[in-house]
Amino acid sequence: MNFENELCYPYLNSSCRKTILPPSVSMLNYVTLSLISFLTVIFNLLVIISVCHFRKLHSPTNILLLSLAVSDCMVGFLILFQIMLIEGCWYLGDIMCALYFVSDYAITSASVGTMVLISVDRYMAICYPLSYPSKVTAERTKLFAMICWISSVLFHSLLLKKNLQQPGRYNSCSGECVVGVDYIGGIFDLLLSFIGPVTVIIILYVRVFGVVVSQARAMQSHVAVVSLQDSGRATARKSEMKAAVVLGIVVVVFLICTCPYYCVTLMAEDDGVSASSLAFLLFYFNSTLNPLIYAVFYPWFRKSVKLILTLQILKHGSCDTNLF
C-alpha cells in the first residue's frame, strides 16, 4: 500500500495518519451511523411537529419534551461529523472543529438542563399536585427552557474561548480535531454540567417514586369506596404517575448513555478531547431512543404521528384535534 494513501493530507509532512479499516467494517460503520443520524432526525422532528402543531399538547411537561427533542434532533445532525471521522481525519478545518465542539458541549449541557427541568416538573406534579397548575405554567416553562439553552451556549463559548481564539492549538498533526479545556474550567464544567444536575435529578426522582409507590398503594386499598368525583381525581393522579414513570425511564436511559461521555470528555488525557471517541456515539444514540420510548408509552404520540404521516395535519382545524 502506498504510504501517502495512509495520510489525511498526503502532501503535508505534518499530516495525521488515517485509521485503516477493512472495507466491510468501514462500510458497516458508514451505513450504521447514517441510519442512526437519519432516524434520530426523523423521529425527533415528529416529536417537534406534534408538540408545536397540536394545541392539546401545549402543556408544561410537553414543552420540556419539545426542548429535549430539539437537542436530540441537533444531535442527529452532529452524527454527520462522526461519519466523516470514520477514517480518523477531519477535513473541515480548525475553526469548524472548534465550532463543532462548542455546539456539541452546548447541546449536551442543554439536554442535561432539560432533564433537570423535567425532574422538577414531575416532582411538583406528584408531590405538590394542588399548587402545580398555578406554579408550573406553560409560559414559565418556556422561559426556563430558553434560559437553559442560552446559558448553555454562553457558558461553553466561554469555556472553549481559547479554542475559538486560536483554533487547532491542541492538534498534534494536520487532520486532527481536538480541543482543550483548562483544569479550572473542566472542574466547573464537571460540576455544572454533570455532577450537580445528576445529583438533583436522582434526589428528585427518589422522592417522586417514593410518593408514587405510596399513592399507588393508597389507591389500591381504597378502590372499592371511591366516589365518582374521587374516581376522576384518581384517573388524573394515575396519568401524572404514568408520566413520572415514563420520564423516569427517559432519565435513566439518558444517564446510562451520558456517563461514559462525560468520563471521556472531562477526564481525557492531557486535557485534550478527541471528536472520534466511541463515548460520543453512545451519547448520540440516546437521542434516537427517546422518541421510541414516547412511542411505546404515549398513545397521544402514536396518534399524532399517524396524523402527520397521513398529512391530516394539513386540514383546517387539525391543530385542535383531541389526541387523548
From TrEMBL:
It comes from Fundulus heteroclitus. One of its GO terms (cellular component) is plasma membrane. One of its GO terms (molecular function) is trace-amine receptor activity. Gene3D superfamilies: Rhodopsin 7-helix transmembrane proteins. The keyword Membrane applies. Belongs to the G-protein coupled receptor 1 family. The chain crosses the membrane at residues 27-51, 63-86, 98-120, 141-160, 190-213, 243-268, 280-301. It is found in: Cell membrane. SMART domains: 7TM_GPCR_Srsx (SM01381). Keywords: Cell membrane, G-protein coupled receptor, Membrane, Receptor, Transducer, Transmembrane, Transmembrane helix. This is G-protein coupled receptors family 1 profile domain-containing protein. It is a multi-pass membrane protein. Residues 43-294 form the G-protein coupled receptors family 1 profile domain. The keyword Membrane applies.
